[in-house]
Amino acid sequence: MDKKVKIVPFSDAYKNAFRALNEEWIVKYFRMEEMDHVSLNNPRTYILDKGGYIAVALLADDPVGVCALIPSDREDFEFELAKMGVSPKAQGKGIGKLLGHHIIEKAKLLGCKKLYLESNRILEPAINLYRKLGFVEIVGAKSPYERSDIQMELVLTDD
User: Fold this and answer.
1) 157 domain-assigned
2) Are 117 and 81 in contact (CB under 8 A)?
3) How far apart are CA 137 and CA 23, in angstroms?
4) Lowest model confidence (mean pLDDT) among 26-35, 65-74, 86-95, 135-144
5) How far is CA 10 from CA 16, 17, 103, 117, 121, in A?
6) For the chain, which terminal residue's Cβ has fewer other Cβ atoms within 10 angstroms, N or C?
7) Could you tell me if residue 71 is inside a domain?
8) CATH number for the domain that contains residue 39
9) Are 16 and 59 in contact (CB under 8 A)?
């Protein structure tokens, strides 16, 4: 992994990067949905003001990756790992893995016992990363996204 990569908390200076890095992968494989517009255009209101967190990966001070921890209203889950995106120009450098570990540690610090995520099986590198991070597939969860065809969880406590 590149030594010039650092993870910083979201600030308004990264609002456009948060939206652009997510739109980039969403429109490449799917289409923007209503929930995408809500969360990507209003990260402070939709994520941060509700007790969530957004991490930004910087490569030589350029925002090249993002990942959010969104408070979950799902039973048994305190947070959802969501809106992870890494610029194609920075892929293959371990940035997604770094963001994933960072978000998991942040979730633990916030008292999260089980972390949730949803994705699509066409995003094989992402699914493989989630599995390497310890996420396992679950069934039966409903999603507000048409593109979601896999839900996963990560248990963060031993109880």
Assistant:
1) no
2) yes
3) 25
4) 135-144
5) 11, 10, 12, 20, 28
6) C
7) yes
8) 3.40.630.30
9) no
| Cβ atoms 67, 100 nearer than 8 A | yes
Residue pair 153/120 in contact by the 8 Å Cβ criterion: no
For position 61, what pLDDT does the model report? 92
The three-class DSSP label of residue 4 is coil
**Is residue 58 within 8 Å of residue 93, measured between CB atoms?**
no
Q: Report yes or no on 145 lying in a domain.
A: no
Token pair for residue 77? 């889950």
Number of folded domains in the chain?
Answer: 1
Residue 106 belongs to domain spanning = 5-112
- In this structure, the chain runs to a length of 159
Task: Decide if pLDDT at 1 tops 60.
Answer: no
pLDDT band at 144 (very low <50, low <70, confident <90, very high): confident
Question: Does residue 137 sit within a domain?
Answer: no
Query: Does the predicted model carry a pTM greater than 0.85?
Result: yes
C-alpha 3/C-alpha 104 separation (Å) is 21
